[in-house]
Write a structure and sequence with these properties.
Layout lengths: L4 H22 L4 H28 L3 H13 L4 H6 L12 H10 L9 H13 L11 H27 L6 H4 L11 H8 L12 H9 L8 H9 L2 H7 L7 H18 L1
Helix pairs in contact: 1-2, 1-3, 2-3, 2-7, 3-6, 3-7, 5-6, 6-7, 7-12, 11-13
């Protein structure tokens, strides 16, 4: 896709806005939290890179591509107050970082370079990027942009989680769910949902193997060929499977998940 100067300007403006916004929280964060805030400033840069690869494959209109890039940059705007003011990364009934991010952005001038439709598309993508499922009646442009951001966000979450789990440290998202590390235990609800090719809710997770299967189940909530092939090419999906035991129900589940990923990658 060929970028115009105005598109480049809006992307750069979004990047500068995000960095300045994040640093305003870093400046008043405790020393312990500053590292996490810095990570949250860098995370959208990796999400943006994934979104750009999806754009290269899908070749949407230049307007949709621009909205997807801006949404990728700004999708975690609501995380900073959550980390620094609430000292948690958990969404709940009182705070949802997607909803809060959309509210913050709607009251700022960062999206002023977009027309009404594409501004709303970006706000919807930010608001919905972390939901368990998307509404069926979404505007088609908003759905595609949101799906791009969701796929890219998941790819970076898998990367971060694999790095933590391989070092025997349940870091990042794993810590949020309060799982207990155990070499062989797994919740029966997690096993059932994996067999049925369903996503695994946070409420089902008790053990570290539940968390690994939770991540693997995301293969059923991706939308673009790039995302499937990225999981294969980086080896991250295989690394997740290798963290599961080679006994009991696990060989069956691993074979199923591996076959599903490669089928999705072929079919696109």
């Amino acid at each position: 896709m060929r970028y115009t100067r105005s598109m480049d300007t809006l992307i750069l403006h979004s990047l500068h806005w995000l960095v300045d916004f994040g640093r305003s929280f870093e400046d008043r964060a405790s020393e312990e939290l500053r590292v996490r805030v810095r990570r949250k400033i860098m995370h959208p840069m990796r999400v943006l890179a994934h979104v750009r690869h999806i754009i290269e494959e899908e070749r949407p209109s230049s307007e949709l591509a621009l909205a997807a890039e801006v949404a990728a940059i700004l999708h975690d705007t609501g995380r900073f107050a959550q980390l620094v003011d609430r000292r948690t990364a958990d969404d709940g009934q009182e705070y949802d970082h997607g909803e809060e991010g959309a509210r913050i952005l709607s009251e700022s001038d960062v999206l002023d370079g977009l027309d009404t439709h594409w501004r709303q598309v970006v706000l919807e993508a930010v608001r919905l990027h972390n939901k368990a499922a998307l509404p069926e009646d979404m505007d088609p442009d908003a759905r595609m942009v949101t799906e791009m951001v969701r796929d890219a966000d998941k790819l970076d979450a898998v990367r971060n989680s694999v790095n933590g789990l391989l070092h025997k440290e349940l870091t990042g998202r794993a810590i949020k769910y309060g799982v207990t590390v155990h070499p062989t235990e797994v919740s029966q609800d997690t096993v059932r949902r994996t067999r049925e090719r369903k996503l695994i809710p946070y409420s089902s997770m008790r053990w570290s193997n539940d968390f690994v299967l939770f991540l693997c189940a995301w293969v059923h909530d991706l939308h673009f060929r790039y995302a499937y092939n990225r999981l294969i090419d980086t080896g991250h999906f295989e690394q997740l499977l290798e963290l599961l035991p080679d006994q009991g129900v696990f060989p069956e589940l691993k074979d199923q998940l591996r076959a599903d990923l490669h089928r999705f990658a072929r079919e696109g």
